[in-house]
Design a protein that fits this description.
62% strand, 9 strands, alpha+beta, 2 helices, Porin
Length: 191
């Protein structure tokens, strides 16, 4: 009972907006952090690639690549890149009907990042691209699959990377976008 109530609260659009606001406020506070404490930004031409496991909704994963286009831009760096994501999840609707969605996305992305500590980089940005969704509906006796739909994917990124070495780091991102997993945790490699 408690778990289903918590799940209902988290899945409501209202709570998603509050979570996005809290994370944006935390990012804003790091930007207001003492400017002399901010480390040098990643240099122009630096490339970061990585892979995430996606946890909500359902399960899946994504891969991404970011290229530093500008450095020393308001004490930070501006990147352009791309992300490919896969997500699958199921839900129960009324009368014992099960609905399963499979989503694939390919989106260009742009981020602004700050190295607030020598090993810690925080970033925020936007993504815009295309997503494909296929839905399977089953009532226990039979199932049907729709022909799939191509959709516009637009959203925000809020994330952080903690580098254990000069090149290898732990990465976490929240994508507040349609057709993409919201919570992503994985690894990043910086070149």
């Amino acid at each position: 009972m408690i778990i289903s109530t918590v799940s209902l609260i988290i899945t409501s659009n209202y709570m998603k907006k509050i979570l996005a606001l809290v994370l944006a406020a935390a990012f804003g506070m790091t930007m207001a952090f003492n400017a002399s404490a901010i480390e040098d930004p990643d240099p122009v031409g630096a490339i970061t690639v990585g892979a995430h496991a996606a946890f909500y909704p359902g399960g899946g994963g994504n891969v991404f690549a970011d290229y530093v286009l500008f450095d020393n831009w308001w004490k930070g760096h501006f990147t352009v890149g791309a992300e490919a994501a896969f997500n699958a999840f199921s839900r129960q609707s009324g009368y014992g009907i099960s609905v399963s969605d499979t989503r694939l996305c390919l989106v260009p992305r742009a981020t602004y990042g700050l190295n607030i500590l020598p090993n810690l980089e925080v970033h925020a940005g936007a993504l815009l691209g295309l997503g494909y969704e296929q839905t399977r509906v089953s009532d226990g006796h039979s199932s049907s699959v729709d022909g799939g739909h191509i959709r516009l994917v637009i959203g925000d990124i809020l994330g952080a990377r903690y580098f254990l070495t000069d090149n290898l780091g732990i990465s976490a991102e929240m994508n507040y976008a349609s057709y993409m997993p919201y919570l992503n945790i994985g690894v990043a490699l910086r070149f």
